[in-house]
Amino acid sequence: xxxxxxxxxxxxxxxxxxxxxxxxxxxxxxxxxxxxxxxxxxxxxxxxxxxxxxxxxxxxxxxxxxxxxxxxxxxxxxxxxxxxxxxxxxxxxxxxxxxxxxxxxxxxxxxxxxxxxxxxxxxxxxxxxxxxxxxxxxxxxxxxxxxxxxxxxxxxxxxxxxxxxxxxxxxxxxxxxxxxxxxxxxxxxxxxxxxx
Length: 196
Hints:
The protein is an alpha/beta fold and 196 residues long. It contains seven helices and seven strands, in the order αβαβααβαβαβαββ. The radius of gyration is 15 Å and the shape is globular.
């Protein structure tokens, strides 16, 4: 059977979520970020506009397998393949130019978490104070992303994600023992403390 056979296609953030992400970065004066799963760059643009206001920088990365297969679950079916001709990558590059984010937002193509360290370090050498997770929404994938990224966020920094209405996302975040989760406009936010 064809591993790219779904009628589903990844969805982006809504206007409220866009504004929430931009404001979150500005209100916390965040400086160094990473976004896991760029897609077409809408959330990346929101994040980039926030970092533009704070003078910070953010790397965003995606393998674009979902786009190639038109299947939001396609990551489970591939062994670290990337789709470099993706319209999503072209879209984020266009948005970076349109909103003058060239010194703020850096798109990369690769797999999280395995390719992330090298991708981030090409652009940012300081500790991260912001990570936004919006990749594979299965329980195991979200749990692994949280486990991989929580140690890389400095104390007082923000670990956040999208689609907090999905039971698999809620359970994975909860099972990582993150306390005082703030849920707003479809996003979840955790401010890292000394105990994590």
